[in-house]
């Protein structure tokens, strides 16, 4: 019988293979694994969960083994969280064709980032009205951190890990904020210090030293008044 419609022909072929117990997948020539790839970030940060998935083109089927460094397990996905900084990690995936026994291994080297953590502002414990003071910001960061400052609500640009400013005479308190940002991951953490302002008053010794000057100034002023 001649097939006059493509859908009818396909149906007849399916019925034929089903009746004879033939799997159509067996008609395809086995191939692969081809184009294996590990999908996931190039860099991971200590303390932040991450995951990687492995894929490849295979026929009829492929099995996967994936792991980090010398630890691996069956499956095509791995998840982990680093508890401390190390120089690097390597994700390894091995793909094997179940029909041909051929296998292929692909690897992905990971860069390890850390921080910012332990962000600390160091400097004077109080602000001195009318005086210039210096504060430093530090943090644990890998590979490095950049720093930015906000002093009493105003951004201070281009100061790096150090900020220098003069406290206004009329100020009674001040707030300093340091923002540490990882230069690669762009994760950031801020540290805040709220400080009171101390007023500077002359000591007793300074008052004694100033007394002759004040007396002399008073005499001159009195003399001017008498002359007038």
TrEMBL record:
Keywords: Disulfide bond, Glycoprotein, Immunoglobulin domain, Signal
InterPro entries (UniProt xref): Ig-like_dom (IPR007110), Ig-like_dom_sf (IPR036179), Ig-like_fold (IPR013783), IgSF_CEA-related (IPR052598)
All residue ranges annotated as the Ig-like domain in the record: 116-196
Signal peptide range in chain numbering: 1-24
Keyword Ligase carried by entry: no
Record flagged with keyword Disulfide bond: yes
Gene3D superfamilies tied to this protein: Immunoglobulins (2.60.40.10)
Coiled-coil intervals: none
Transmembrane segments: none
Protein name: Uncharacterized protein LOC108280035
Lineage: Eukaryota, Metazoa, Chordata, Craniata, Vertebrata
């Amino acid at each position: 019988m001649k097939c006059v419609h493509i859908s009818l022909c396909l149906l007849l072929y399916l019925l034929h293979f089903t009746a004879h117990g033939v799997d159509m997948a067996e008609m395809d020539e086995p191939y692969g694994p081809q184009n294996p790839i590990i999908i996931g970030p190039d860099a991971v940060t200590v303390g932040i969960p991450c995951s990687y998935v492995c894929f490849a083109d295979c026929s009829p089927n492929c099995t996967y083994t994936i792991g980090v460094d010398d630890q691996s397990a069956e499956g095509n996905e791995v998840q982990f969280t680093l508890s401390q900084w190390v120089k690097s990690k390597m994700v390894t995936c091995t793909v094997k064709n179940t029909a041909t026994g051929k296998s292929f291994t692909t690897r992905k080297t990971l860069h390890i980032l850390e921080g910012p953590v332990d962000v600390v502002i160091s400097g004077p414990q109080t602000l001195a009205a009318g005086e210039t003071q210096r504060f430093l910001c530090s943090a644990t960061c890998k590979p490095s951190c950049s720093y930015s400052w906000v002093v009493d609500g105003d951004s201070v640009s281009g100061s790096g890990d150090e900020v220098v400013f003069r406290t206004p005479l009329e100020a009674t308190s001040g707030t300093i904020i340091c923002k540490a940002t990882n230069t690669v991951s762009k994760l950031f953490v801020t540290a805040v210090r709220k400080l009171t302002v101390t007023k500077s008053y002359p000591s007793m010794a300074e008052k004694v030293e100033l007394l002759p000057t004040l007396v002399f100034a008073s005499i001159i002023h009195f003399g001017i008044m008498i002359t007038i």
